[in-house]
Amino acid sequence: MKPLNNYIDHTLLKATATKNDIIQLCEEAKQYQFFSVCVNSCYVSLAKEQLKNSNVNVCSVIGFPLGAMSTEAKVAETKQALNDGADEIDMVLNLGFLKSNNFDAVSNDIKAVKNSMPTKTLKVILETCYLEELEIIKASELAIQSGANFIKTSTGFGTGGATLNDVKLMKHIANGNAKIKASGGIKDYKTALDYINLGAERLGTSSGIAIVTGQISEDKNY
Length: 222
Description:
Blueprint: E1 8-12, H1 19-32, E2 36-40, H2 44-50, E3 57-62, H3 71-83, E4 88-92, H4 95-99, H5 103-115, E5 121-125, H6 133-145, E6 150-152, H7 164-174, E7 179-183, H8 189-198, E8 202-205, H9 208-213
Parallel strand pairs: 1-2, 1-8, 2-3, 3-4, 4-5, 5-6, 6-7, 7-8
Helix pairs in contact: 3-5, 5-6, 6-7
Protein name: Deoxyribose-phosphate aldolase
Active site: 90 (proton donor/acceptor), 152 (schiff-base intermediate with acetaldehyde), 181 (proton donor/acceptor)
InterPro entries: Aldolase_TIM (IPR013785), DeoC (IPR011343), DeoC/FbaB/LacD_aldolase (IPR002915), DeoC_typeI (IPR028581)
């Protein structure tokens, strides 16, 4: 297993995050050598500037947190985030389309974003707390078929975050064709290790420092 810090996307996505909060996030990411910071797209350029001359990547969320924006809006946001320096994109799947059984629309939404970033890592957020098991299976299949490099459990803004059962199911469906990112509610070392042992290759959390220092985070977010 690689060092635990290399699994972590150090995350700050709350609506009230300030410029100084993002600067602090980046300083923490450099100090603990996390894989990336994950921020809203308006802060990508700031994060990129703060992280220059470091090995920490910048991840931007797209269509966040609902996934219900038009495909054109998601593509435009993706292109801007990439222009601003994003290394990876975490986009939210359109749950309404999925629950309407409009699978072509779900797929086309993801493909359009992937086509705008063919060489970059795309993670598709399924928001599993709103999905039945069969829907998780279908969402995973659609995301992978549409070009997702990772399938991700949660935004952290729904009614629940990652669960061990969901990650186990997603790993089985991915079958090596995509990687798994567990996110939402991962706040301590043991929980992080449980997800990694199940096969998660990335963790989205605002509690990265607590995780790598063996503490339990009191953070109520993500």
